[in-house]
Fold this sequence. Notes:
By secondary structure, this protein is of the alpha/beta class. The chain folds into 2 domains: about 1-160, 3-Layer(aba) Sandwich (Rossmann fold), CATH 3.40.50; about 175-420, pyruvate-formate lyase- activating enzyme, CATH 3.80.30. It is built from 15 helices and 16 strands. The chain has a 6-stranded parallel β-sheet, with helices on both faces. A 6-stranded parallel β-sheet has the order 9-12-13-14-15-16.
Amino acid sequence: MRVVLxxxxxxxxxxxxxxxxxxxxxxxxxxxxTTRVVERMRKLYRNLPSIQLGYLAAxxxxxxxxxxxxxxKWIPGxxxxxxxxxxxxxxxxxxxxxxxxxxxxxxxxxxTFATHVPEVLAGHxxxxxxxxxxxxxxxxxxxxxxxxxxxxxxIQDLDSLPFPRWDLVYRRRFGHEVIHSLFSMRxxxxxxxxxxxxxxxxxCPHRIxxxxxxxxxxxxxxxxxxxxxxxxxxxxxxxxxxxxxxxDRSMAIAEGIIRKNLPVRFECETRLDSLDKELVDLLxxxxxxxxxxxxESVDPNTLKRVGRRPxxxxxxxxxxxxxxxxxxxxxxxxxxxxxxxxxxxIQATIDYSIDLNSTMALFKILTPYPGTPLRKRMESxxxxxxxxxxxxxxxxxxxxxxxxxxxLFMLTTAYSRFYIRPSWGWNYLGLPNCFARWVQRWDAxxxxxxxxxxxxxxxxxxxxxSS
Length: 467
């Protein structure tokens, strides 16, 4: 059987799919000159291959089938599986319908969007996989013909899965690691050492499809060894929402990399309260060079209302500062527009992001994704009917305290205030601190100008008194 796997290149902005936003994906479009610069940077850097396609390619190849992967072109075959997203589903539907028309292929959809919003895809393909796709792929590989909505059972033993076949998956020449080192020529690969998330944040779609499971350290190390044998020096992006959730397991992986002298550098995502200096030291020795983490809001009460456990600010600052001294890049994630947010609370969160002084920061607007507890709570507030607008950067609901325009303004303000600072560019480029006094003065000027812009904007929003 000839199998075509489609992870389509998104249109209109910087589109990321696969494991982004729990698999729903995101679309980033510059709405100010600062955000347009960020957009250009992300177009260059976000070139990771799809980890889900890597696993599916391995399953079909192991069963003796021909496997072809596409990010745009229609390829003749017997079966096509299309990775879906909330931000680009119309394009994905169009591709599927054309594949059926041209080649008479059996076409199926999979992914978080297919799992939680299958009604939108109904009639546009032959079947829709609900759940993690590997079990359904195993059935297809055995020759089963699937029709309609198909529940794909969760595979509890992740060690039983074959390793992703990156030799079959399309990869671009330069990838994600460019953001960490302009001069590195390492090949870049995503890796999942665990799936889902054990936390209970009501706004996050990472845990809504299946329960948390983790692979054994031995199995993860075997995959890393295989990648190194094939590609030499590599950069790995661990896509686990919480890589260090199980301290002993993450330590065993790091110790194994050191013991086997594997030529890797890597990035991982986690909670800062699951890190301490001893663990950071070990991960660094194993190759950790970039760390991503959620901060979301500076207000602990806001976090508690959405089921997120607050982390003491002192600990966050301590870990970020320690990573910076070791040369580990840090990227903080923030959410604007929680239901309790005001202009003042958002400004405080932006101030906090600057105070933490991470290498980079990513700001998004609160998005009630289908299937999340937050979505059920906010159903009556949702104003947006176009599902593709649930992209992480577009207001989609009636906020109790802020208009859509104000939310967008605060989003652009967050990016401007964080990245326009002369000290940010100075530190990012690693320039000497002998001009620290001048940089501080330039920072103060940039901050004062941004405050003036904010004041002018909100003054213009105030209702004018009648004469």
